[in-house]
Amino acid sequence: MDYVIQQVLNAASIGGEYALLALGLAIVFSVMGLVNFAHGEIITIAGFTMYALFIFASPTSAWWLLPIGIAAAIAAAVTFERVAFRPVRNAPATTGLLTAFGVSIVVKNFFVSVVGATRPRAVPTPDWLGSQIVIGGVHIQTLQLLEAAVTAIALIALLALLRGTNIGLAMRAAAKDFNTVRLMGIRANQVVLAAFVISGLLAGLAAVFIMARRGAVDPFMGFSPVLKAFVAAVLGGFGSLTGAVVGGLALGVAEVLFQIVLPDKIAGYRDAFVFLLVGAVLILRPQGLFGRKYQFGDKEG
Amino acid sequence: MMAALQMRFGLGRQSFVGGFILAALVILIGLIVMAAAEKAQIRVANVFFVNLILVLGLQITMGNSNVANLGHITFTGVGAYVAGILVAPLAIKATGIPNAPFGLNTFELHFIPAAMIGVVIGTVLAFLTGLVLTRQTGIAYSIATLALLVIVHTVFTNWVDLTRGPIAFYGIPFKVNTVSLMLIAAACAIVARLFRDSRWGLQLRASGEDVLAAEASGVSVKRLRLVAWTLSGFVLSLGGVMYAYLVGTISPKSFYFDAVFLTLAMLILGGMRSASGAVVGAVIVTLGTELMRWLEGAPVIFGAKMPQIFGLTGFFLGVVIVLFMALRPDGLVGDEELDEMAKRLWRQRKARAAAGEDTGPETSS
Amino acid sequence: MLVVDRLSVAYGSIKAVREVSLRVEKGEIVALLGPNGAGKTSLISAIVGLVPSAGGKVELDGTDISRKRTEDIVRLGATVTPEGRKIFGDLTVGQNLRLGAAVRRDRDGIAADIEQMLTMFPILRERFASRAQTLSGGEQQQLAIARSMMSRPKLLMLDEPSLGLAPRLVEQIFGLITELRAKGLTLLVVEQNAYDALALADRAYIMNSGRLQFSGRSEDLLASDDLMEHYLGTGTGGHAGAPG
Question: What count of other Cβ atoms lies within 10 Å of the Cβ of residue B362?
Fold first, then answer.
């Protein structure tokens, strides 16, 4: 029993992390048709900011690292938009994707060459993140519980935002028809900004959890989780918010299942198996689980 | 023969002329380097030719279908590993991969059949994966190509018995030189140019701009993309074989994001819409990275490696990509091949000369 | 109120609008007529900044708006009800109306205006909580107009309000346009359906192939079969509406 609950929580926390990231990708994509390949670098920037704070300000409590990390993630997302993505806002999707690819390389290399961080640097997170609690005789890691809970709260808050506020409604409307939204007098820049703030916030939350798990930063730390998030978003149907969440959770479940099922000898192939499984799903449903039947040319270029 | 090709593939004379001009340009670069350069620079040129093959391979699929492909290096890795393992001497295999599957450590092949098998396997893999990938469009397609790269990389890294896993596989005999590399790169330039101008390439490029219209006019974009993807897999795995024969040592990380990024940067810079763009981009990025390396004061011993893309060089390369996307998304060369551009400029000049001085600028329509 | 001075619009090398000048005075209904592809939609899109102009000037109440962004022009009081209605299909009728008032901060005023719109368009009250994409074509057109009204524009430009509607609904929409003018609104109505549009407009402009061909009073146009025939290809009593 202990084991089952443990594994379920494993799946929920990993899946939750992917869902947070995939949701950020999906929001930016649905609002402005941009595939943000630099999403992983938001995590990296959050991690390095926490590292810098730890080194230079030596805060009395590791607590402070968390809000600063999240704030840095939001700032990074907004800066990317302002500096790199705005000039290509109305360009074909491929142009935006390659721009984001360039941004990703710039940030990685900034940390490699300017900061000189070629090997991982340790960063502490609050102790209680690594602790365990016992509920009904079952040992549960606080981090995992928190991860599942925060994901759930973030999703509910996002849902409320999208249904109940003007900016949320505008974002949903802009996903289909940006020009008509502007005809309502709503500023395009504000809608896009909101999308990036939300995607940065979600990435910041994920970054905190990633940091808590890894305990160290390096310039490439954002890549792997965001790659998974991309796959999750495609699995769910790219641009669909529901799809991003379901895809993220499904990917978490698949990873944990393969972890359990695969014999040690081929455990290293786990990701390959997960991706192949996703590929199989996409053969049956090319538009993803929740995607619309893909309109050729739709936000493609 | 040309008439037959023209009938079958819709290729005109200019395509052949242009292809050969481009190939001549590539060979000229090789000849200049061989005549004038020192050993270290010749090594740089050798790597340049391999990269050029890869960029041309990428151009065939990405340039024509206008959807980002991030997994092309997969086939380069497959070609390199297959040929490398087949051709490696028995003594090397005995120490390197003593438990190789399929009895691969019990024989060694001549380098030409090994290369052919490497290319065939790479191409077949491209065709098979293409069957699945081309069902996707747009973003999902780009991400699926990326997933393919990760899957194959996972296999390279984990199949220790076959590839030595994350450790480098060494001892592949050096079988290529500047002459063979430049000839093969030149041939690939012709292939890319002819494909671009062929009926398939034309329809594919038209579909890149308006997939709906293409589908509506009865053009199967999926099938065209599969053709391009497979041909590109052929060129890319050929490039992989060349890489293995040039460098002699391969490891999974040779065929991962560094290589993807480098070749992508070259193509974007030159302009992905044309084969000329691939050549121009490869030349400029190679010169640029060498210059950066010189500025950074890196050791003078230029190893025969892919140009370094992490560090300051990579930083600037990233900046250049971002700037190009914002200011000149079609790259330096743009929509036309160099020969087409030259022809147009020549005609305009002649027209202007014929019309005399008193006509206004030609954009008066 | 609106002064358009030699405005041009180009898409690449194709010139969609060539140096068109027109004026709309406060309280007027002005019809902008012409066949499909004449450049009417391009012209009003350029007026509100949705497409860049390739020369010329636009003034709204004496303010130069030629270089302003769409959202700022809307905030200055000029808006477009786009062709094909372009309602937000995923949102409810109520949410559509709410977004229409997104630039306003007066909660009570917004609530009052919504109430007023629901009185003016009773069908929208019935469908208030339904997703907009479930509405019929005529209902969507009503929603689109009501949504535009929610920003309290001074100048409303309607792009093809009768497109795809049954004659009875066209009549209803055109009746509504007169009603809106009575409330003090200034209207520029883009139409292919020339005959009906002329019946309610004070003045009319006729465009063809990107150029202005005619401007004058609606009565004069309607009174002259020659003019109607010449510019709009219709004779006496014939319904205009050059198709496709």
Answer: 10
